[in-house]
Amino acid sequence: MNLTKAIATIGGWTVLSRITGLLREMLIARYLGAGMVADAFFVAFRFPNLFRSLFAEGAFNAAFVPLFAGKLEGEGREAARRFAEQCLAVLGWSVLAFVAVMEMAMPWAMYLLAPGFGDMPGKMALATELSRITFPYLLFISMVSLQSGVLNSLGRFAAAAGTPVLLNLTSMAMLVALAPYTRTPGHAMAWGVFASGVAQFSWLVFSVRRARMSLRPAWPRLTPEVRLMLRRVVPGAVGAGVYQVNLLINTVIASHVANGAVSYLNYADRVNQLPLGVVGIAIGTALLPLLSRQLRAGETAAALASQNRAMELGLLLTVPAALAFITLAHPIITVLFERGSFHSGDSRAVAGALTAFALGLPAYVLVKVLTPSFFARHDTRTPVKVAMLTVAVNIVLNLILMVPLKHVGMALSTAVAAWANVIVLARVLKQRGFFTIDARLKSRIPRIFAASLTMAAMLWAAGRAMAPWLDAHGTRAAALAVLIILGAATYAAATLLTGAARLDELKAMLRRRRG
Description:
By secondary structure, the chain is mainly alpha-helical.
């Protein structure tokens, strides 16, 4: 499996999913704005996404993929398929029961997730109603997560990486089609979430069948292998989903701060997720099965090299993205969202949160590079211990910063907690002899930062010169496009001049992709 090619495949589809995701957020901003309805919908959508990230997508994949890849490598496709069927049965029936319980407990559960909503008449009831519509999405997306693990282990990354595009397109279509007929636009978006879960699941059923790995329905049986996987899921739940845990804490506190605070954090996080999703998810998804196979084959040096190259690529792409977001936060938000029910005051509030989130952008990606080293070695306990530490850091900083900085303080605490996560994970791996920064990465890191700072200085100067065009409604989009092109060109030139990247390496990567 070629790591660069796998990352490029996943990254390409993820770029499309993030672009359509931004279009979806722009449509939500136009219809819902950043007030009561938007806050209620974002909490309703975050509820199933929280459990998906913790149990289905994060911890489950961390436990399932190494075991499935090991069976595929050691016992063949049929044994791997039977194991996947057993896991699908246990996961599907367990999540179905959980969804049923949560549907009945929703009013009380909402008081735990967004207790501050009770201070505004009608807001808690609206959030509860929308959550009951969106929560069954968890069932479908959990089965999508297992199917994606199967396809990724087979080296078929495109189908799974393309499923978020279905989410975005389906939810946008439902919003436009249903908004004139539902009580609020939030109801239309909630039904769009439900429909998108069905669409993603159906698409991967077809894709797994094409890969000749059809998974038949079965009654759940706790075989020794399934028990082993479940033992690894439990401690990995928090470790793999620490970013979502921090966002959950932000949501709870933001519900008390002000009307619209939940929406401000959501819009800023969605923009910040563009490079995080394209780079971080692509690297993490491609790296875990590769490390699992390399370690099973005893190729420890190759595994270490794969990790260093993944870290190098992550920094090469996320450090400039973070500095660009910090430099151009306000123009980016005004161009993307300021229309319809979304006003200039909302833009300023979201831009502040984006600046704070961006400070942690490289850290979010580095966590995706470091955690597969634990999971590939079947260690899901260490990340959970580290995660508990970083969650504690996030809570303390939230309580300290929420009064002086309001929602911006919450975004900043998430960024600091992410860097704490990276530092501790890297230290533990180094102590165990599983991680060492090689000579190439040591020489590239300062060069990447130098090239990124050069780009940021150019963007700052050009932004001041183009301020009149960035402030005018008719020209702001074109002016931002010019700045983005200038920034990309400056960074490309700076990386080659500083040696942060070499032209022959880029050409070799392109040749491997064509191959």
